[in-house]
Amino acid sequence: MIKFSHHIFLSLMNLRCRFKVTKKHDFKNFDQNKSILIFTMSESQSWYEVKRVIKEAEKMGFEARRVLYKDLIFRENKVFVGSREINETNTAGIIFRVAGTKSGKYIEARNLVIKLLGDKIKCVNEQSYLQWPRMGKIPQLGVFLKNNIPVISTKIFYKKDDVLKEKWEFPMIAKDSMGFQGKSVCKIDNQEELIKFLDEMDEIDLGMWLWQKYLPLDWDLRVIVIGGVVIGAMKRTAVGDEFRSNFSLGGQVEKWDLSKSDKIIAENVAKSCGLDYCGVDIMKNNKGDSYILEVNRQCQFRGFEKATGINVAKQIINCIIC
Q1: Of 23, 35, 107, 279, most Cβ neighbours within 10 A?
Q2: Omega before residue 171 within 30° of 0, cis
Q3: Is 137-150+216-321 CATH 3.30.470.20?
Q4: What are the distances in angstroms from CA 254 to CA 43, 68, 309?
Q5: How many Cα atoms are found within 13 Å in the side-chain-facing hemisphere of 33?
Q6: According to CATH, what is the number of the domain 154-213?
Q7: Do the beta carbons of residue 45 and residue 35 sit within 8 Å?
């Protein structure tokens, strides 16, 4: 387990001092004939986030609209959505929602859009997408460890026998690298449950799971970072027998006043992962030490806006057109 030492704290302080603070937007130089495009897999995906960006753009006097990955067409060095070419004369910026398919075809499409248009059009999180096409929890772990970001002690195995030979302190947490909004996070209370869990898993999939120490708190923090700067934080608390605190799983949310050290950690996560916009999840132990659970580069923000009153959609737009 990585401890958040005084030396690391000073290093993160220095990193924070180098962040460029997002300036207030000046609309005088913005071409309001240009649109912001929001790519989704379907007409219903991320309905709240898409609706909010469209509404805030309308208030500012220009268009934001949903477009579908399946309507993309590439002709040599040009990008089309249906019959309309996407270029710097008609598009101000692009937001990508989850593009995952089993084949990965839309992930490849997303990154081809960035490679062809990224020098001319702002593509949110483009640096991160090109470096990590799929940024699951295992790639994140590597980034966090390399950049001295505090994480919960984590183990990864490729053979079931090695998992069973390990001396575990129960309860423990097993989580799929790809996440799925907390739905794949499993709490295992004893050896019998561990054996059953492994029996139901194909060993070929084992290496995509992370095994972590269980922190006995029923809450965590979601921090949103835009343009390298924390805009706010909320506390998420699990309800009833549910140990996961995700808002999408029924967790209660409330505004949280983030400490200076946690702001620095969250901003360092965004910087280390090359993210313009992200949600950083922080959990604490009984001593108050902070650990990064994960970063979500396409985070939903319905619960966050409800808890904090912060206009996330507008700040994402400002990140694009500033």
Answers
A1: 279
A2: yes
A3: yes
A4: 30, 33, 10
A5: 4
A6: 3.30.1490
A7: no
Query: From residue 16, how far is each of 10, 47, 265 by CA, in Å?
Result: 10, 34, 9
Amino acid letter for position 194: L
**With respect to CATH, is domain 31-123 assigned 3.40.1080.10?**
no
Among residues 92, 121, 124, 55, the alpha carbon closest in space to that of 277 is found at 124
Q: What is the mean pLDDT of each run of 10 residues along the chain (322 residues)?
A: 40 40 42 91 97 97 97 97 97 96 95 97 97 94 97 97 96 88 83 97 97 91 98 89 52 93 98 98 94 95 97 97 86
Q: Give the integer Cα–Cα distance in Å for 124 and 51.
A: 17
Q: Record the tokens describing residue 182, joined without a space.
A: 């907390």
Residue 279: alpha-carbon gap to chain centroid:
5
Tokens of 87: 């270029």
Indicate the residue type of 196. Answer: K
Q: Where in the chain is the domain with CATH 3.40.50.1760?
A: 31-123
Residues 6+ apart with CB under 8 A from 105: none
φ, ψ of residue 73 to 5 degrees: the values are: -135, 135
